Every structure is written in C-alpha cells, then in structure tokens.
TrEMBL record:
Signal peptide residues on this chain, from the entry's feature table: 1-19
One Gene Ontology molecular-function label: maltose binding
Protein name per UniProt: Carbohydrate ABC transporter substrate-binding protein, CUT1 family
InterPro entries per the UniProt record, alphabetical: SBP
SUPFAM superfamilies in UniProt: Periplasmic binding protein-like II (SSF53850)
C-alpha cells in the first residue's frame, strides 16, 4: 500500500477513541494464546517489537494491552518497542537483518512483504495459532503467503471508496448517489457541465496506481500472471487494455488538474473546493473537511457523501486493500514469544479496537459486523471485492521503479497510447519479476 496514505490516518477526523479490551479472550474456542502453556512461566527474556508511528500515535492503548497480556502469561518478560516512520523503516530493517540483532516482530506494509518472504527473511508461522486466520480478508491473506506457506499475520486494512459533495451534485440536478457506472458517468457529466471546464468533476491523480489498476481487475485482467512457475506481465492482454482504456477515458473527461501528480496530497486538493468527487481511502475526505484544509467555508463537513465505487463491469470496482502485516524475522531468537505477542495484538478484541479507530478488521467475520453499522457500511462493502499485487519475487523492484505510475501517467498525458504504455510496463516487469530483490 502507498505508505503515505496509511501514515496519514492519524489526521483523519473520522477516527474515534475506544478503550482497548483485554487481549486474552478468544473467539471460536481456540487456545487462550498462540502456543503458550496453560500456566504462567517466569522468564527473563526480552522481545523487541518494531511498529510504525501509526500505533504509537493512534492506538497506544492496544500496544499496552498486548504487552500486558503476554507478560501475564510469562512473568518477567520484557517487551521493548521501537517506532519508525514509513520512509525510514525498511532501510533500518535491511541493515539489522544482516546482523544478529534482528527484532522479534516487525510491521510491514502489505506490498512490502513479498521480497522479504522470497529471500527467507521471515520465519514461517502456523496460521492456525492466530485468531480468525481462516477468515482473513483475501487481499490481506495473499500478502502473507508465499509458495503456499504463511510468513506473517494481517494487522489491519483500509479500502478505497468514492466520496462526493451532495451540494454540488444537487446543484447539477443529481439527488442520489450512483449505483452503476452508467449512472456515475451520467451524473459526473451533469456536474462537469454545471461547474465548467476547469472544474474537476472527479479529481483523480494519474499516478494513483491503486485506482488505475482497479479498472484492470474490474475488466477481468491482472498486472501479471504466473505461468509454469514464472511470472510475466499481463497488461497487454485484451482485458487489461479494456480496463486501462476505461480508466483513461474517465480521467480525460473529468480530471482537469495536473496530470503528472500522485495522490499524496489529494485530500488537501479536495479541501480547496474545486472538485466534486474523489476515489480514495476512507480517511481522505474527512481529512479534507478538517478546518486546516477546508477552504470552502465549512461546506465539506456537512456535504460529504460516501458510496461504493461502481465499475464499468457492472459490479463494484475491486479495491486494493492497503494495510499492514506483522512478521517475525528468521533471525529472531524468540519466535514463539513473538508469535504470542502478535496474536495478542491482532486477535478478535484487538481488531475491535482497531475498527473503533477507523480501520477495517483483518477478517471477514468482523467485517460483516462493520458492514451492519450505517457509519461504516460503504467501506466494509467496498472491501468485499479486492485485489492484491503479484506475489512475485521481484515485485519490490517494480514498485521501486514506479513502473505502474509511469505507465498511467504516460497514458493520461497522451505521451503513449494505452497499448504502447502497457507494452512498455510489461517489458519492464518481465526483466525483474522473477529476480529476488
């Protein structure tokens, strides 16, 4: 997932507080913890847990709850925490993995997992020892599995939804949110005509590949496919071309901002009041309504309406489920204790805490309860149809090279045709997908 987006969850005005619950109460009759004995055993060990600043700033009570739970089972155990900003974490992790001082638990962005799993940097885990593992969300489950083995535990997720201003829609004669692609484009046509050529009926930065590639999956395509054990770019297939063409047409029609931008400041741009709709993680629109960013005189706060983004296929647009996973480095000397701590930090009650903070849970069972909540129905429904990046050994190189972003920008700006841009992206991927980073 784009880590800037997740890190910015802390500014979301939709975040609400909820007291952390005890982390040793389990669901579905499982053991009281991931591999602990029934009686407390005194230990003088220390486990080191690396988390990003999201946990430090937004749910420190959950961290304490997990610490308290494992210490209660292992008196004398010490839990040491280190917190990192997303841009700094992997460089520090790469450096420490070359030594004998690896942390016992490390938080990873879900798209960051693949190269580390491929290199054997993380220990294999027994999924059955973790709450709700049989119900992990598909997009998250894929991120912790490699060659049929489990190397991590999903932590939390975020999905993308559509949000528009009902006041602008109403001024154009639109009084209900769209349920189909035809309705959406028809409504956006009315808004564009009413607001004028310089207005963004839909502000959609071209380099936001999480949105652009959703159209590929909506059309039945994929970024890459595995053929006989070898990964190969698949963006030149008819289905992928169809999806990219639908995306190009929408951006060309409704996006009149800078076509070379990424999505990092989309919520700030939306707050300027020159756009009707965005397709983004659920925190972005409420953040735009924060007084620090709202330049509309307060209109955003009372006029934002969320809806599930329809796709050209006639179904909901598949979403990229961004989020975080927790892994145990292979060099950890405390694999069992690390696994216990992870379970205490991600179990059913922990997920309830994270849901209260504006996140999606890591499993379908609790997602269903979130879907029943009117305040969260849209996000939970959107998350039901998701996709994930190719779990190829060299996927990290594709992300580092920004291959997807370059392709989409070239298409949006007219620098390349859809076919030529897709061909170039496939060629670039084919050079690295099967090469371990």
């Amino acid at each position: 997932m784009k880590r800037k987006l997740i890190a910015a969850i802390g500014v979301a005005t939709m975040i609400v507080g909820i007291a952390a619950c005890g982390s040793d109460k389990k669901d579905d009759g499982k053991k009281a913890d991931a591999g602990s004995s029934s009686s407390a055993a005194t230990t003088d060990k220390t486990i080191t847990v690396w988390l990003t600043v999201d946990a430090q700033h937004n749910w420190p009570e959950l961290v304490k709850s997990a610490d308290d739970a494992i210490i209660a089972k292992h008196p004398g155990l010490k839990v040491k925490h280190e917190y990192y900003a997303w841009p700094d974490k992997n460089a520090k992790l790469d450096a420490v993995l070359a030594t004998d001082k690896a942390p016992d638990v490390v938080e990873m962005g879900n798209t960051e997992m693949v190269p580390y799993m491929a290199e054997g940097a993380f220990a294999e885990l027994d999924a059955s020892k973790f709450d709700n593992s049989a119900q992990w969300l598909d997009g998250l489950k894929q991120s912790v599995n490699y060659d049929g083995k489990t190397y991590g535990v999903p932590y939390y997720a975020a999905a993308r939804i559509a949000t528009w201003r009902k006041d602008i829609a109403a001024a154009a004669g639109v009084t209900a949110t769209p349920k189909s692609w035809a309705e959406l484009t028809g409504d956006l046509d009315k808004i564009q005509a009413k607001e004028g050529a310089k207005f963004n009926a839909w502000y959609q930065p071209s380099r936001d590949w999480y949105a652009g590639l959703s159209f590929v999956y909506d059309a039945g395509g994929a970024i890459a496919t595995n053929e006989g054990g070898q990964w190969k770019g698949a963006l030149e297939t008819p289905a992928a071309i169809q999806g990219l063409t639908a995306w190009k047409n929408a951006v060309g029609k409704y996006m009149h901002g800078d076509l070379t931008k990424d999505e990092s400041d989309r919520y700030i741009v939306y707050g300027q009041g020159k756009s009707a709709m965005i397709y983004a993680p659920g925190w972005e629109a409420p953040s735009a309504a924060d007084p620090k960013f709202d330049k509309t005189g307060g209109k955003l706060k009372t006029n934002l309406v969320n809806f599930v983004m329809p796709g050209p296929s006639g179904k909901a647009l598949p979403v990229f489920l961004g989020g975080s996973d927790l892994a145990v480095p292979s060099k950890s000397k405390n694999t069992d204790l690390a696994s216990e701590w992870i379970n205490d930090f991600t179990n059913t009650q922990a997920q309830t805490t994270l849901m209260g903070k504006g996140n999606l849970p890591n499993n379908n069972t609790q997602l269903a309860t979130l879907k029943a909540d009117p305040a969260n129905t849209v996000t939970a429904t959107a998350a039901e149809s998701s996709w994930f990046v190719p779990t190829a050994p060299g996927w990290g190189s594709v992300e580092k090279a920004q291959t997807m972003q370059t392709m989409l920008q070239n298409i949006a700006t007219g620098k390349q045709s859809v076919q030529d841009a897709a061909k170039a992206a496939d060629a670039a991927m084919d050079k690295v997908l099967n090469v371990k980073n």
